[in-house]
């Protein structure tokens, strides 16, 4: 399948048709996913709509090589992990698919990246190899084609001076930062932003600070930066697409990505709208690995397709997931 087809989806019917084609491809060519489906009693012939498609628990990316054909690997993205814990590995056949996904996804919600100065505050990600977030930020920085776009690891004073330059009054600014680094910035410095600055958090305290709920995080950041809204990016190592929130922690997906929620007690059951459950994701950009992922996040989906993330399963919930028991 040409990836242009994936990134040209216009409506629900397009999504259904292409998702079923990708499921058929992955059922045939991804031997681990096929075995997983068969254990659930699901075959290629029994899947007639996306509602019938099994979601692969994301934990298997830590244990197995999840690929949909035997191919040469261009890049391996890895998750961050605490000392002694295993990490997820996403074997990427074609980086061009990832690049097209994040470029078109950003443009879908924010417009042309060349209109922005991109400032990335991503300590802990930059300090290790294999971060898909760092790879995306690096490409967006290049695409912005602005001499002051770049990574600001620990040079906070330079970052603040850049944010406050008068020359940026007529330039859109994107400050992309991991949660703990943005909190450190507003707690230790007074930052006066230009009116056209987008503050976008990527989540995660990465062991640097106590985890807090998004509502509290955004309250602190809005107060610290003196802005009305904090934007958010939702992505992960195991996906090649991102969802974005422009306000209130409510995320929207690009047309080739879809979120639903499952019953934590019966993970094969879809809960529908306005109910809290485990987050399932269809990411059609994952054509070469697995496009149907059961995450460890808890969330709620609304009728318009938007969603919010409310937390994560704890370890006992994960161990008790009967999908993993298979």
Which tags fit this structure?
single chain; 326 residues; alpha/beta; 7-stranded mixed sheet; 5-stranded mixed sheet; 14 strands; disordered C terminus
Outline the fold blueprint.
Elements: H1 3-6, H2 12-29, H3 31-39, E1 56-57, H4 60-63, E2 75-78, E3 89-92, H5 95-110, E4 116-121, H6 132-144, E5 150-151, H7 156-163, E6 172-177, H8 179-188, E7 197-201, H9 214-225, E8 231-234, E9 243-245, E10 251-252, E11 257-262, E12 277-283, E13 292-301, E14 307-312, H10 315-319, H11 322-325
Parallel strand pairs: 1-13, 4-5, 4-6, 6-7, 7-8
Antiparallel strand pairs: 2-3, 8-9, 9-10, 11-12, 12-13, 13-14
Task: Please characterize this protein's 3D structure.
The protein has 326 residues and is α/β, with parallel strands linked by helices. The protein is built from eleven helices and 14 strands. The strands form three sheets. It has a seven-stranded mixed β-sheet with strand order 5-4-6-7-8-9-10. Strands 1, 11, 12, 13 and 14 form a five-stranded mixed β-sheet that branches. Strand 12 (277-283) and strand 13 form a beta hairpin. Helix 2 packs across helix 3 and helix 8 (179-188) packs parallel to helix 9 (214-225). It is globular. Residues 315-326 have low confidence and may be disordered.
